[in-house]
Structures are given as structure tokens and as C-alpha cells.
User: Which sequence fits this backbone?
């Protein structure tokens, strides 16, 4: 039985590995001074797994004048210790993500340092809170430059640079901005009009929100949606004392096939960007239509609890506030509930992002670049049409200057680049692509200065002389 080495020893191993890989070294980018303030080479918006991985990737390329901004308190970036309610991650434990090929930086190394190799073998899926602990450790051991409680409100193009406005404090400046803003960062969580237009906000919440289930103890709630989060929230609610949790699903049966599992083992995730637009579109139509099932353990945990009810083939036709409850009408009649929970996913559209208000109209969508021979899919069409390295592309040539240097490393890359920036399954493929794109842009923006410096370079390296003046030993 292998004894755990502990996290302190693992941190030393990381330091040794990075030293052996010659991590660090002098930055090669050209400073861009401004009278208004310092100009960072790159600002990364979002300090979750994607933002941290992007920061480390840039540092590996000696792009060191970077800053990561996150609106949450330190250690609470992303969903894992905020609104996520699953017990474990859904991604298979063996898939790597933000380690960039360095074994000592993997989650497996982090787990084995605490629980040994036998502990890894015994682990089924990665516990959600342990994943967050790993991200905190990753940030600390790499000493990544993250500034917390810094909410970005607007990104203002300045012609080759950006002014990044914050909710509190003076604006910051950057040559490149990477939006590592997670699953919701390309649009917003979806609340059906049926609910949004008919009920006060006190009567419902999306699963992405903070919900006080303990405050609903003894009550009846209704959940809409077939995704895993519906069952995660039903389990969380019933465990907190909610009397009944009714999950309503429009489909006549729950999805059983998870297309992501095939994508992970077939090479599709890594090679998806190489497909032509027609193939990408066709595959993503199937991805949206098939949906993903809840995991078996998630379903079993929720359905085993007293008070759990599942209503298949039962869409909501109407909702109404009765004064002391909410009436939900389905093809099977009307029932009343104390609160509604919406597991209804998200809509991706740059127009929904307030920080992109100055540039959203100029961002190319899929509807601008590709028209399918078959029926179009409105949810797909609204996605931005990204370049091969996650760069936002212009609708017209006149829009190009304002978007140059702006990268969407979030779920809005789904159609153009597949499961990538916000999927653990895809990060190992997506990060090198993003980092190369940002670094290449920085280099090409300065190509004239770079070439001139190369042509002017005359530092002697060879100091030999002939004939030799000293005796040969």
C-alpha cells in the first residue's frame, strides 16, 4: 500500500517539475504604455477552472503581464461551492484538464497525495467539493495572479486595446481580453416566458441561483426539466426538509444515451474544430436534440427519497399565482405548489452579456456565416461564430478593429469548437489552442518591432580568435 506524500511534498514536486521544464524566463512581449494607466498584455475575466488554466498556459509561453479577474470571493470562483448541488462531477475521473501535461498538477496527483494510490483506485467519481479544493490548491501552488471581488461591467474597445470597467474601482487596460466566464458566460440562464411573465420573482428560481431549501421545509416544490440539475436539486431540497419535490419532464421518457461519453473516447472532442461548418452544425443539432441524461447515481439518490415524484410527458401549459401558492397546469390537470425551480438550461447569445454591450452587434453569429440545407436551429444560430482559437469574429469588416484581441473562452464556443472551454472533457484540447491564439496575436501585433529588433541584433556570442594567442594546453 502506497502511503500518501501530502500536499506540501506535492507542491515541492510541482516546483521541481516546472524548474526542469524551464518554466518562466523573461517575457518577450513589447510594453504598451498609456498615460491613463498600465496596459496588461492579457486580462482574463473569470477565475474558475478555465481562467486558471488559461493563465497558467500563458505563463508557460512567457506571457507574464496578465491578470485574472473574478467577481466572487477568493476560493468561491465558479459553481462548485456556490450554486452547484451535485455530489460528484459527471466527468470520468481519469480525464485531465488544466495540468497542461504536467503529471504533478493533475487531480489524480492531488488526490493520491492525500489518499494514496489505493485511494485513487477506490474513487468512483470526483467529489464536487474536492474538485474545488483542487482548484484552490492549483491557484496557490502556481501563484497565479488573480484579483477577486472584481466584477467586470463593460469592455470598451480603444483600437488595439481595451478599457475594462469594473463595478468597483478604476478601470483596467489590456491588449487582449479573454472571457473565461463559464457555462453562462456566453449568454444567460433561460427562464421560460411562461414563468417569467406570469409570476413574481419570489415564486421561482433557476437552478443556477442560491435557493434556501431549508426555508422551504415542509413545502411542496415543482421542478421543470430533465437535466441532471433537476435531480440534483430535488435531492438537495428533500434532504433539506422539503416535503415533496415533483420533477416535470416534457419528454415521454428520460434520455438514456449520453453523447459526451462517445465524444470523449472517439477523438471527436479534440478534433471537432477540424470539421467543416455543415458537419459541425449537423452534429450540434443532434447534440441539442438528444440532450444528456441524469447520471445513474444522481437519479438513484433523488428518486429513493420519500416525497420524490417524477412526471414524464408532462409539459407545463400554464402557471398562475393564486396568492398563497402557484398553480401549474399540465395536460393532466392543475396542481398547486409553494415554489418552482427551473432546470431549463441557458441561452447563448452575445447580446445577452452586458459587458459586451459596445461590441455585441458587431459579433458574427452562426446565422451570419452558415445556412443549413435543412431547417435551421435558432439556439445554434444565435451562437457566435468563433475563429479557430476562440477569437470573436466580426460581422462586417468595419467591426473587425473593435473585436481584435477579444476571445470567448466560455460555453459560447460550443458550435464552433465543440466541447471545449467550459467542459472538463475538452479543456486539455482547448487550452493550448487558446494560448497559441492569444500569444500569436500579441506577436503579430508587434511584428514590425520584433523583426526590426531581430535585424538589429548584434550581441557577440563567439569570442574565439585565430591565430590563438595563448598556449594550447
Assistant:
Amino acid at each position: 500500500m502506497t502511503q500518501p506524500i501530502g500536499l506540501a511534498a506535492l507542491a515541492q514536486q510541482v516546483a521541481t517539475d516546472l524548474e526542469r521544464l524551464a518554466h518562466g524566463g523573461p517575457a518577450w512581449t513589447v510594453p504598451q504604455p498609456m498615460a491613463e494607466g498600465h496596459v496588461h498584455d492579457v486580462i482574463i475575466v473569470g477565475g474558475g477552472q478555465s481562467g486558471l488554466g488559461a493563465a497558467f498556459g500563458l505563463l508557460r509561453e512567457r506571457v507574464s503581464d496578465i491578470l485574472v479577474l473574478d467577481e466572487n470571493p477568493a476560493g468561491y470562483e465558479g459553481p462548485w461551492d456556490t450554486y452547484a448541488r451535485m455530489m460528484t462531477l459527471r466527468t470520468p475521473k481519469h480525464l485531465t484538464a488544466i495540468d497542461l501535461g504536467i503529471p504533478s498538477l493533475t487531480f489524480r496527483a492531488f488526490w493520491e497525495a492525500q489518499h494514496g494510490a489505493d485511494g485513487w483506485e477506490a474513487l468512483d467519481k470526483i467529489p464536487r467539493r474536492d474538485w474545488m479544493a483542487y482548484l484552490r490548491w492549483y491557484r496557490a501552488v502556481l501563484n497565479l495572479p488573480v484579483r477577486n471581488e472584481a466584477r467586470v461591467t463593460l469592455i470598451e474597445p480603444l483600437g488595439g486595446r481595451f478599457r475594462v470597467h469594473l463595478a468597483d474601482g478604476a478601470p483596467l487596460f489590456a491588449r487582449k481580453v479573454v472571457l473565461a466566464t463559464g457555462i453562462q458566460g456566453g449568454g444567460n440562464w433561460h427562464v421560460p416566458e411562461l414563468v417569467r411573465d406570469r409570476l413574481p420573482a419570489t415564486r421561482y428560481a433557476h437552478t443556477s441561483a442560491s435557493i434556501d431549501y431549508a426555508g422551504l421545509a415542509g413545502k411542496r416544490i415543482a421542478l421543470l426539466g430533465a437535466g441532471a440539475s433537476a435531480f440534483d436539486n430535488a435531492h438537495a431540497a428533500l434532504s433539506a426538509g422539503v416535503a415533496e419535490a415533483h420533477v416535470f419532464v416534457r419528454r415521454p421518457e428520460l434520455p438514456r444515451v449520453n453523447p459526451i461519453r462517445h465524444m470523449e473516447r472517439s477523438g471527436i472532442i479534440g478534433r471537432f474544430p477540424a470539421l467543416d461548418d455543415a458537419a459541425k452544425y449537423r452534429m450540434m443539432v443532434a447534440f441539442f436534440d438528444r440532450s444528456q441524461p441524469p447520471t445513474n447515481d444522481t437519479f438513484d439518490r433523488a428518486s429513493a427519497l420519500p416525497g420524490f415524484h417524477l412526471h414524464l410527458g408532462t409539459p407545463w401549459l400554464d402557471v398562475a399565482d393564486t396568492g398563497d401558492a402557484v398553480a401549474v397546469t399540465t395536460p393532466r390537470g392543475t396542481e398547486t405548489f409553494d415554489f418552482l425551480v427551473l432546470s431549463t438550461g441557458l441561452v447563448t447569445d452575445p447580446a445577452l452579456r452586458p459587458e459586451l454591450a459596445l461590441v455585441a452587434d458587431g459579433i458574427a453569429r452562426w446565422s451570419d456565416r452558415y445556412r443549413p440545407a435543412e431547417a435551421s436551429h435558432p439556439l445554434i444560430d444565435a451562437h457566435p461564430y468563433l475563429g479557430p482559437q476562440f477569437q470573436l469574429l466580426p460581422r462586417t469588416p468595419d467591426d473587425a478593429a473593435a473585436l481584435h484581441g477579444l476571445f470567448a473562452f466560455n460555453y459560447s464556443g460550443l458550435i464552433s469548437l465543440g466541447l471545449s472551454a467550459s467542459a472538463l472533457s475538452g479543456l486539455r484540447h482547448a487550452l493550448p489552442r487558446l494560448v497559441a491564439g492569444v500569444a500569436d496575436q500579441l506577436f503579430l501585433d508587434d511584428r514590425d518591432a520584433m523583426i526590426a529588433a531581430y535585424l538589429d541584433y548584434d550581441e557577440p556570442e563567439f569570442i574565439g580568435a585565430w591565430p590563438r594567442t595563448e598556449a594550447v594546453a
User: Anything to note?
Assistant: The first helix runs from residue 7 to 20.
